[in-house]
Amino acid sequence: MSLDISTLYLVAALVGVMLGVMLLFFGRQQKIPTLNWWGAAYLLGAISIGVWTVAGPLLRDTVALALNAVGFVACGMVWSAARVFHGRKPNWLALPLGAAVWLIIIVCPPDESSTMRLTIGAGIVAAYAVLTANELWSEQRKAMRKRWPALLVPILHGFVLMLPILLGYMLRADGSSFRSAKWVPIFAFELVLYAVGTVFVIFMLVSDRTVKAHKAAASIDPLTGMLNRRGFAEATARVIEREASTGRLVTALVFDIDHFKSINDRFGHAAGDEILKLFAIVVTNTLRTTDLSGRIGGEEFAALLPCSIEEAAVAAERVREAFAVSGITAEDAPVETTVSIGAASGPPGTELEVLLAAADTALYQAKRGGRNRVQVAEEEPLSPEQDRRRPAVWPAPAVRQSSVMWPV
Prior knowledge:
By secondary structure, the protein is of the alpha+beta class. The chain contains 13 helices and 7 strands.
């Protein structure tokens, strides 16, 4: 059974138009610029193929070759889509550069330069493909096993758009027409399958990005920008497991801003929110980048430090001192900003909830001891079912109220 080549290419163009419109529709509906760029690229590529199929025999050679320049613009738009996907701006100067080079080449005589034109055309497509793949690679290398098919999208897109040019001039037999080649029906059918398959890959990329964004939003406290309780628990579980595999200790810190209710009562909740945001900044800037911190509820914050309890207590003291001298004011009056901190450590692999329970016990002891201090738990926690243990009150005479209580 023989297939009409023009019909196959027309079907491919119509499918491309349909998919392009679908991508543009979802891009507008979901406000995803990347889909808009990919949709526009599909439309341009489909229009190029459709016009070339329907009116190709009637067009002059120069006009037909110029029409193929639209394919180069589509390749540039795929590259721009990859840039937009990563939050970067499209390169408007480089976007039509490939098409401009192609138009310059096709007006250069003599006719013997057709091979050079094809080589330059293939090089333009390859350049856009490399640029697009490089954009995707910058993120794909972190999750290569799950999303490696996305790297094929730019290369296949440019390759398929250029196949009518490359194959039409290089693989047809001498004296034969392009449409009479036996491989053309296979290519046309493959073009349809490719167009549909590529859209699935595009939606995979966008869907994966959306899921990650929603997951991140569910793990972040909107007021302070820190991890919320859920995000903190998930992140610290990985750290605890990693440190336990090498036998290293971790220490949990629990922070509670002193007299926070009275701040809300005196100055309003807006001032209380500013205090919370200030403390989040103090914790983030004071602790190390390897330390995890989050807001676990109300005015209560927590941190997990991959170090011994002695080192963690020193870090906690730095936080306490930095917050105490922050100098925030409300209604032209200074606001006292102090924090009580409880610290607890345990054997390698101790669960987070166990550590937090022990640190919380030490925190309440610090509150009862006068606030604005760091308190270390007396004993290592053993199980989450244990009653809260009594924290240590180390014999440290002549120590100021706000200092860490260490054994002499």
